[in-house]
Write a structure and sequence with these properties.
Distance between the termini: 63 Å
Helix content: 40-55%
Structural class: mainly alpha
Mean pLDDT: 88
Oligomer: single chain
Strand content: 5-15%
Order of helices and strands: HHHEEH
Number of helices: 4
Largest sheet: 2 strands, antiparallel
Radius of gyration: 17 Å
Number of domains: 1
């Protein structure tokens, strides 16, 4: 199994191969390299970023094929990867920050 195939498998849904390629390049991974356990967290990070990029989409096209996406499934997979590997939870609601600016008056 190659690193790219492992990243696609880690996504657990059909994802655009170009998105996987782009994230692998950004991570400095060689998609054609043989996968081994030392790549586990890096491959999970690639999958996490690919899935995060798919959240706003309802579907995507690859050639003549249109693939419909299940947003709840993507969110569940992101939550799983976030919990398992300690990634920043992109689904968590933003926490407002209150700052004391009274000294500026």
């Amino acid at each position: 199994m190659t690193v790219k195939e492992a990243a696609i498998a880690q996504c657990s849904i059909e994802v655009p191969s170009t998105a996987v390629d782009m994230e692998m390049i950004n991570s400095g991974l060689n998609g054609a390299a043989e996968y081994n356990q030392s790549f586990e967290k890096q491959v999970a990070d690639v999958a996490y970023r690919v899935l995060s990029g798919l959240l706003p989409l309802r579907s995507f096209k690859e050639g003549d094929l249109t693939i419909q996406l299940d947003t709840k499934g993507i969110q569940a997979r992101l939550a799983f990867l976030s919990a398992k590997y300690g990634f920043e939870d992109v689904l968590a609601p933003a926490t407002p920050v209150v700052r004391n600016r009274s000294n500026l008056w």
